[in-house]
Write a structure and sequence with these properties.
By secondary structure, the chain is mainly alpha-helical. The protein has helices spanning 29-37, 41-68, 72-75, 78-83, 91-123, 132-138, 140-152, 157-177, 184-203, 209-225, 233-258, 270-296, 301-315, 319-329, 342-368, 371-379, 384-399, 401-414, 426-435, 444-473. Helix 13 (301-315) crosses helix 15 (342-368).
């Protein structure tokens, strides 16, 4: 350790500074080939055998994609693949949702940059953002798939929508990155609001959506108010309660004034439905799995037995069985006059199934936390809840990032099983396309390849982001 460099110990309630790992040595192409492919006799033999095979398969694949494939079933039904039989008069809602969620992603990116720059300044370290070329390399799979979509469109509408979404996201990212890091909690509240608005612009501003919109704003306001030194705890509690009530009252008033119906997600179809289903199931399954993991390690026998029984039961049942059972059994456990839709039942099955696996992944991370870390937290007077929240969970979740992202990728790919319960996902829409008289027994391989590429682009990007996060956190290195 450099004796001239000051040692900075972050506070327990502040996130740790993430520093890039040391850069990997870059070798000239000739030296890289010699070291990686022809370093010894066995590697050379494998290279000589496999390279011609890989080159031939690449040639055949490119020949199929760009020369022999007949893409007319995809090109003429691209809207059907994306949104299914969604009411065409309401397509503006999907367009607005795309732009709003792109803005939310840009705002989240800017908030992350602002926070990282602020933490770097506190630690006395320089902050360096990745150049544009590095960002393109990170998302090349998604960008390639987006380019393929745009090449197959037969009008300028999708191109204009894509340009508007990218412009909105880039603008908010640029603005948010300039906000002082100590205030970026409000930026994250804005991300939550935009996320809810993006969902409700399609489903309609009604029901209990005001609760979901008010929650992130209330958390942000309470976090900022908590930084003020209040003369007494009683006054702080009153101010906090008043702020929360005020935020939710404003959100309720906004919903009462707007109150416009939308298109329920029973009519959401196509690849749009796969993305929404995976996102909702991940958002619901993660906290549920976290609670199950903590309950399984609880000192209370009742919690431990119930969580263990649930985890082992769900993990022992195939997902397709849960999907089929959800269409029949969930209604028996709910006392309601309005039956749940097939999609709602399916999302419940995905959530319950994934939560059991997330619980086991998190439990493995909890077991990897050294006992000395817990004792250190207790020695400075932290409660058991504070030790778990500030020490145990951050260390445990950091260690299980690869397994966690792998489970979420599996969940996204498993949404293709929705077609089995007659929910019109991307695979179901493909059957609808080939039910048309013009495309019966025509372009079957091409539509399968299109579906495969759509799932691969999202899954590969999630995997690359997981690997990047692992490198930045130094998982497996220290």
């Amino acid at each position: 350790m450099d004796p001239k460099r000051p040692i900075i110990e972050p506070a327990l309630d502040e996130p740790l500074l993430v520093v890039d790992a040391p850069p990997v040595e870059k070798l000239p192409p000739r030296l890289w080939i010699r070291r990686r492919l022809f370093s010894n006799f066995y590697n050379s033999a494998i290279t000589v055998v496999l390279l011609p095979l890989i080159a031939y398969l690449a040639y055949r694949g490119l020949l199929f994609l760009f020369v022999t494939a007949r893409w007319s079933p995809v090109r003429e039904n691209l809207t059907l693949f994306m949104v299914g039989r969604y009411p065409r008069a309401e397509l503006w809602r999907i367009v607005a949702q795309l732009i709003i969620w792109s803005s939310a992603l840009g705002l989240a990116w800017g908030a992350a940059v602002s926070g990282a720059r602020f933490r770097a300044a506190q630690a006395g370290l320089p902050y360096r953002e990745d150049p544009l070329l590095a960002k393109v390399r990170r998302y090349w799979a998604l960008l390639s798939m987006l380019g393929l979509f745009l090449l197959m469109t037969q009008s300028y509408g999708p191109l204009l929508v894509t340009a508007a979404a990218l412009a909105a996201g880039s603008l908010l990212k640029s603005l948010a990155a300039r906000v002082p890091g100590r205030h970026n909690v409000l930026l994250w509240a804005g991300v939550g609001v935009l996320g809810v608005v993006g969902y409700q612009i399609v489903s309609g501003f009604h029901g209990n959506g005001w609760l979901w919109m008010g929650a992130p704003v209330a958390l942000g306001v309470v976090s900022l108010l908590g930084r003020v030194e209040w003369p007494s705890q009683s006054r702080w509690r009153v101010v906090r309660l008043g702020a929360v009530v005020g935020v939710f009252a404003i959100a309720y008033a906004v919903y009462a004034l707007v109150g416009t119906p939308g298109v329920g997600w029973d009519d959401w179809e196509g690849f749009h439905l796969n993305l929404i289903t995976a996102t909702v199931a991940i958002v619901l399954a993660f906290p549920l799995g976290l609670l199950l993991a903590l309950a399984r390690r609880s000192s209370l026998p009742a919690l431990r037995v119930m969580s263990t029984a649930y985890i082992e039961l769900i993990r022992g049942v195939p997902l397709i069985t849960l999907l089929l059972m959800s269409q029949t059994f969930i209604g028996f456990f709910l006392d309601t006059d309005t039956p749940l839709s097939s999609l709602t039942r399916s999302i419940a099955a995905f959530t319950l199934f994934t939560a059991a696996y997330v619980a086991e992944i998190v439990r493995g991370g909890l077991q990897s936390v050294d006992r000395g870390q817990i004792e250190a937290g207790q020695s400075v007077g932290l409660s058991s809840f504070a030790v778990t929240r500030l020490i145990v969970l951050p260390l445990a979740l950091r260690a299980v990032i690869p397994a966690m992202v792998g489970q979420f990728i599996a969940l996204f790919k498993d949404t293709s099983l929705l077609s089995i319960v007659s929910v019109a996902d991307l695979l179901f829409v493909r059957r609808v396309v080939h039910a048309q008289e013009a495309f019966r027994a025509f372009g079957i391989a091409e539509t399968l390849v299109f579906v495969m590429l759509a799932f691969w682009a999202v899954s590969f990007t999630m995997s690359r982001e997981s690997q990047r996060l692992e490198r930045r956190l130094g998982i497996g290195e220290r």
